[in-house]
Write a structure and sequence with these properties.
The structure is a single chain. By secondary structure, the protein is an alpha/beta fold. The protein has a single domain, classed as Spore Coat Polysaccharide Biosynthesis Protein SpsA, Chain A (Alpha-Beta Complex). It is 35% helix and 15% strand. The protein is built from 9 helices and 7 strands, in the order βαβαβαβαβαβααβαα. Strands 3-2-1-4-6-5-7 form a 7-stranded mixed sheet, with helices on both faces. The longest helix has 18 residues. The radius of gyration is 19 Å and the shape is globular. It binds uridine-5'-diphosphate and magnesium ion. Uridine-5'-diphosphate binds next to strand 1 and helix 3.
């Protein structure tokens, strides 16, 4: 029997998350089983050096809906998203983190919102990170909004849902995952921000610290501001030939 074409593709970047993978697969299956439509889950193994690859291979034997993409080396979250978006077959694409800070159960809840807008982005209103991390993120969002002339409360939450065309063909850059709402709007799509649950990491350690997040940001900010201003937005149509020589 031919495999059904998935309606929804869930893309999950995953780097050294061995203690989260089994629970992630279990919870994702329970949550997506509820949407009542065929789905696929693309876990993008971002060059993990722990037991993640072995656990994912085991998962593929058990779950027909699981696809695994393996980056040749650790390439960062934006690259993992880009690779996942390119491979996704669904007309809806959702994204999550692998560490279960986002609740997969939120996907069926948010899915109907895509009837009204092109993209739904999670807002971790009650964020379960250290006080320092929360402060850092609040400042980052404030500066991001100021420089990129945005109004997003939480642009970097990984829990997002898109109509596939929003991200298909979108060429990303390092750090782009912090600007998805802006990039979507820049391309003319509508975005809605929706409060979502947030939990502490289920297991394992965070992959970012202050240094690899704060300082690279300024270049990205200027880049996004420039891109937003200079992005080509136009519509163009070909004229129909009139008169006797017209071929239809
Ligand atoms: N991640 C990745 N490649 C990296 C760094 C992180 O694929 O180089 C994944 C990681 O496994 C997790 C997600 O991106 O699923 C977010 O990372 P993390 O939880 O460390 O970030 P935080 O939640 O602290 O922002
Ligand atoms: Mg996390």
């Amino acid at each position: 029997m031919a495999e059904p074409v998935p309606y929804l593709s869930l893309v999950i970047p995953c780097y050294n998350e061995q203690d989260n993978v089994p629970e992630l697969l279990r919870r994702v299956e329970a949550a997506l089983g509820r949407i009542g439509k065929p789905f696929e889950v693309l876990i993008v193994d971002d060059g993990s050096t722990d037991n993640t690859p072995r656990l994912l291979a085991e998962g593929m034997r058990r779950f027909p809906w699981l696809r695994v993409l393996r980056m040749a080396r650790n390439s960062g979250q934006s690259a993992a998203f880009e690779a996942g978006f390119a491979a996704a077959r669904g007309q809806v694409i959702a994204t999550l983190d692998a560490d279960l800070q986002n609740d997969p159960e939120e996907i069926p809840r948010l899915l109907p919102l895509l009837q009204e807008v092109d993209m739904v982005t999670g807002w971790r209103r009650d964020r379960q990170d250290t006080a320092f991390r929360r402060w850092q993120s609040r400042m980052a969002n404030r500066i991001r909004n100021w420089i990129t002339e945005e109004t997003v409360n939480d642009s970097a939450s990984s829990l997002k849902l898109y109509r596939a065309e929003v991200v298909k063909g979108l060429k990303l850059f390092r750090g782009a995952h912090r600007y998805f709402p802006t990039l979507a709007k820049m391309r003319g799509y509508t975005v809605r921000e929706e409060p979502v649950k947030h939990s502490p990491r289920f297991a394992g350690t965070a992959k970012y610290g202050f240094r690899n997040r704060a300082f690279v940001g300024i270049f990205d900010l200027i880049g996004v501001r420039w891109m937003k201003k200079r992005y080509l937005r136009y519509s163009c149509s070909e004229l129909r030939r009139e008169g006797p020589e017209a071929t239809q």
